[in-house]
Amino acid sequence: MTATRITIEGIEKSFSRAGKRTVAVDRVDLAVEPGEIFFLLGPSGCGKTTLLRMIAGFIEPNKGRILFDSTDVTWAPPNQRQVGMVFQSYALWPHLSVFENVAFGLRVRGVSKSEINARVARALALVQMAEYRDRRPNELSGGQQQRIALARALVVEPRVLLLDEPLSNLDAKLRHELREEIRRVCKSAGTTTVYVTHDQKEALAIADRIAVLRNGKVCQVATPSQLYFEPRDQFVASFVGEINLITASVLSNDGATALLRTEFGDLQSNHVSSRNLRPGEPVVLGVRPERVSLAARANSHLSGYVHGALFLGDHQVITLKSDYSSIRMVTSTRITGLAEGHRVGFTIQPEDAMCFVSG
Ligand code: ATP
After folding, report:
1. Angle made by CA atoms 288, 205, 207, in degrees to the nearest 5
2. Nearest CA to 267 among 354, 356, 357?
3. What CATH topology corresponds to 6-238?
4. Minimum-distance ligand 1 atom for the alpha carbon of 42
5. 242-357 matches 6-238 in CATH topology
6. How far is CA 184 from the centre of its chain?
7. Ligand 1 touching residue 168 (CB < 6 A)
8. SS3 of 162, please?
9. How many Cβ atoms sit within 10 Å of the Cβ of residue 119?
10. How far is the CA of 48 from the centre of ligand 1 (A)?
11. pLDDT tens-digit readout, 41-77
12. Which residue's alpha carbon is at the smallest distance from atom 29 of ligand 1?
């Protein structure tokens, strides 16, 4: 079966409650490519679950269309959309074995016994749970139950797989392990996948592309590395990864390189975000902590006072201050002898200096 493209056009959904109207999803346009693992990422209440539930058919939009390839499914009930869903709570049937849980969707579709045996075996092998086929859900760990939920969703060969915070009930170690597993399983099944989370690290690790949502609107759609290195605005920059945000002003800009003034000193930016800045404009400088390096000399262009230095084994976090600003740097190089209050120089490469219009 060839994978399905999902097209979302001008989708809107608002809820009215006690005379108050909440716009949960606000004119969203998205295209999810066939076979893609696509994330809806954003803070609590940004509308990601509402959007996912509209793709599944559990909620009807007020406006807009949802297409699976060229079929308009906007008003189709969930059971006619051929979607598979995996929820936060695994929602397995406690009285059925692992095999029967996975087989259930095939039995209700009237699939033959021999085909059920073959397809369930394939699905269990895909999630590496073949040897657990006779256990009950209460004899499995949370991570194993979620693998079974994934096998159950995939065994019916859905056109679209929808995952709603599937890892949030698991402890941190299992979450990390299952990230790689989910990506491997979805990619080998080849099913178009839409995955909802508020965990940016999960999204960066698993996604092909991510839509960052805020207040029901899409802020940016990009690959994980584009989002990290070229965030469109301050919100995306601070939601995806850690970032230092420092008040700055533009001294000059020739279209290729802007010169910025900060409390720590002057620096150049040739990051794509600095291209259209006008001299005199107040901006916010954004720089990732791992892109700040200590300079050999204290009288480098940029300098600050050591405020703190944390040794964390594989890396060290150093905080430098000026009068009103502070900047954190993360380094894996062994640095010793940093005395609190001492002035030290640091460097930021022009390509790492992101600029955001303040306000
Ligand atoms: P979370 O990560 O907390 O689940 P979310 O990004 O998935 O958040 P939604 O559940 O889609 O957000 O909710 C978006 C907005 O719509 C919120 O303000 C929420 O309170 C509101 N909302 C969602 N469902 C309803 C409903 N049935 N009735 C009224 N308001 C609702």
Report:
1. 110
2. 354
3. Rossmann fold (3.40.50)
4. 6
5. no
6. 17
7. no
8. strand
9. 20
10. 8
11. 999 999 999 999 999 999 999 999 999 999 999 999 9
12. 15
Residues 40/195, Cβ–Cβ less than 8 Å: yes
Q: CA 71 to CA 91: how far, in whole Å?
A: 29
Rounded to whole angstroms, the Cα distance separating 292 from 161 reads 40
Residue type at 255?
A: G
Indicate if ligand 1 lies below 6 Å from the C-beta of 16. no
What is the strand order of the sheet 37-41 is part of?
83-86, 160-164, 192-197, 37-41, 209-214, 217-222
Task: Report domain extents, the chain.
Answer: 6-238, 242-357
How would you write the pLDDT of the chain (359 residues) with one tens digit per residue? 689 999 999 999 999 988 899 999 999 999 999 999 999 999 999 999 999 999 999 999 999 999 999 999 999 999 899 999 998 887 899 999 999 999 999 999 999 999 999 999 999 998 889 999 999 999 999 889 989 999 999 999 999 999 999 888 888 888 888 888 899 889 988 999 999 999 999 999 999 999 999 999 999 999 999 999 999 999 999 999 999 999 999 999 998 999 999 999 999 999 988 888 999 989 999 999 999 999 877 667 899 999 998 888 889 999 999 989 999 999 988 888 888 999 999 999 999 999 998 76
Residue 70 near ligand 1, beta carbon < 6 Å: no
Residue 47 Cβ inside 6 Å of ligand 1? The answer reads yes
Ligand 1 centroid to 230 CA: how many Å?
Answer: 29
Q: Domain 242-357: what homologous superfamily?
A: Nucleic acid-binding proteins (2.40.50.140)
Report the nearest-CA residue for atom 17 of ligand 1. 45
CA of 49 to the centre of ligand 1 (A): 7
State if residue 45 touches ligand 1 by the CB under 6 angstroms criterion: yes
**Tokens at residue 188, please?**
């080998």
Residues whose CB is less than 8 angstroms from the CB of residue 256 and which lie 6 or more positions away in sequence, other chains included: 270, 275
Q: Which mutation among 14, 49, 169 tests ligand 1's pocket best, with the greatest number of atoms within 8 A of CB?
A: 49
Q: Which atom of ligand 1 is nearest to the CA of 40?
A: 6
